[in-house]
Amino acid sequence: MKKSLHPAWKVIRVFLSSLLVGYLLPTSALAQAVPAPEKPASRELRDGQHDFDFNLGVWHTHVRRIADPFSQTSSFTELDGTVTVRKVWGGKAQLEEIEADGAKGHWEGLTLFLYNPEAKEWSQNYVNGKSGVLDPPLIGSFKDGRGELISQDTFQNKTVLVKGVWSEIKPDSHHFDEYISRDGGETWSRAFIAVLTRVQTTPTASAPDPGTNAAKIVDPKDPQHAFDWDIGTWDIHMMRLAHPLTGSKTWNPMNGTTVNSKIWGGRANIAEVKASGPTGELELLALRLFNPDTQEWTTSFATSKVGILNPPTGRPTVGTVENGRLTFYDQEPYDGRTILVRFRIGPVSADSAESEQAFSDDGGKTWETNWINKYAEVKK
Predict the structure, then answer these.
(1) What is the dihedral of CA 197, 202, 206, 212, to 10 degrees?
(2) Which residues pair with 274 in a beta bridge?
(3) Segment 264-281, tens digit of pLDDT
(4) Lowest-confidence region among 174-183, 215-224, 248-257, 262-271
(5) Closest by alpha carbon to 123, among 146, 140, 145, 143?
(6) CA distances (Å), origin 226, targets 24, 289, 321, 325, 375
(7) Is-contact 51 147, C-beta < 8 A?
(8) What average pLDDT is seen over the chain?
(9) Rounded distance between C-alpha atoms, residue 60 and residue 205, angstroms
(10) pLDDT digits 0-9 by tens, 117-150
């Protein structure tokens, strides 16, 4: 059996060969004998920020859900309902609310579509009404009028790929199909089929409710309404620590506005934050979801520069009501290490509120506050 050279000897051999060629050939001959390496061809990405504009409006949907996509004799369920899609966050995202009924009962879903301007890709972030928990996001783009977004998930306790496909896109109709692959994408089996027909162009149903923040308490006995006080418009003053966990004492101020709207019948709300200061500007979107099973809230964040939820972990922060405050925790990488993150909201008064973020690099023994927010209600 022929033995291959150790990688180190390969490098030495190439180095010696280059010396020999340089010694035997004049400079001009060497330039001809050893051509310059070719530059890799760059893949130009198209700007697809308007690819989902066709989806805006109110639609009738007819759905067929296949119980086992890998079985030739699988049963299926048919449903009919309404899909309402509207722009949020100044057009940088879309919010989709789904309601449908079938032989097995009522189904509700919520989807947040986000565009990543750097990668020029879309993400579809879906949550089922029964769980209040986000599924792994489907991520992808459109080509030749067809959108394909892919994710990894589990089906029948096995890891599979999931692909969402938008096709046959016309002004008043389009198709959405979902496929599953258990062989790494070599073959795909259809699991979900939806045919959508336009009802109206302007989405008037289930519009975000700006509300009034009349409820000024965070009631531990009623966690589903723990954010009711926050619905409305607030002036916000921020102080952010320049370099957390370094001993830094430098704080940078920012001022702006946050608008929080109740959506999905009160089981979720969406906050849009815009602020600026000496260090720059901040545009932030926060999606808060209530989990009826655990009686917990999750908060997912996106910034306008990144356009994806919850970087870099992909996980939302999880929170509960503690002593009149909403407290959220997460574990995240930071500056080459893994830390704990805590975000607290409260106390809340008649027309003001506070929140703060803190980091811990010793497992929660000590916490350093690095972001302080003070809110004042904007009166109507």
Answers:
(1) 170
(2) 257, 283
(3) 988 899 999 999 999 999
(4) 215-224
(5) 140
(6) 80, 11, 8, 9, 17
(7) yes
(8) 86
(9) 13
(10) 999 999 999 999 988 899 999 999 999 999 999 9
Question: How many C-beta atoms surround the C-beta of residue 213 within 10 A?
Answer: 21
- Nearest-10 Cα torsion for 113, 272, 339, 244: 140
Instruction: Indicate the pTM of the whole model.
Output: 0.83
Contact 188/204 with Cβ under 8 angstroms? no
**What domains appear along the chain, each with residue ranges and CATH number?**
53-200 (2.40.128.20), 223-377 (2.40.128.20)
Q: Which residue has the tokens 């280059």?
A: 18
